[in-house]
Specification:
About 60% of the residues lie in helices and about 0% in strands. The chain contains 3 helices and no strands. Helix 2 packs antiparallel against helix 3. The chain starts with 6 loop residues before the first helix and ends in a 12-residue tail after the last helix.
């Protein structure tokens, strides 16, 4: 019978560590990402409260806070506080 090794099995024989885990992704672990997420969580809580209260004003205020979180995160990323940003180089992030 013929040996039908998959590409992954062949790669694992030549490179035991596997090249799939070589690149560090970062996962958004930066001040910009954390600030964005915290603001968006607050907006989600406000929207959830507004939904339960059946208040359109409170619900849409929460949605606006979520959008503000996105904008703040984007601004902070552009200011150098994102992953590999100039302001956080060498700070352990």
């Amino acid at each position: 019978m013929a040996n039908h090794a998959t590409t992954t099995e062949t790669a694992m024989k030549t490179d035991p560590a596997g090249s799939i885990h070589d690149e560090v992704i970062g996962h958004g672990n930066s001040p910009a990402a954390w600030t964005c997420v915290f603001i968006m969580i607050a907006g989600s809580i406000v929207s959830g409260i507004g939904f339960v209260m059946a208040s359109n004003v409170v619900f849409w205020a929460g949605v606006v806070v979520i959008l503000i979180g996105l904008i703040v995160g984007w601004i902070m990323k552009k200011a150098g506080y994102g992953v590999d940003g100039s302001k956080i180089q060498g700070s352990g992030h």
